[in-house]
Amino acid sequence: MKLNACHNRPEFRRVYPAQDGFYLDGTTRTPRLVAVPHRMSTDCVYGKNDGRTDPGCEGCRWRDA
Prior knowledge:
Helix content is about 0%, strand content about 30%. By secondary structure, the chain is mainly beta. The chain is elongated and about 55 Å long. It has a two-stranded antiparallel ribbon. It has one domain.
């Protein structure tokens, strides 16, 4: 089942871990992780695709007619 970035899908995580360099102790490198907030749009973009239809949007209650 394809999940589109819309209200029919599960909620996005609010933050995700991303590597931001390394901790160096002289012999090993340990990844340094930081929390990155979710910034991608969650708005419905159905109809903003030059007239093409997306089968994953069929039946979505948030889709514009």
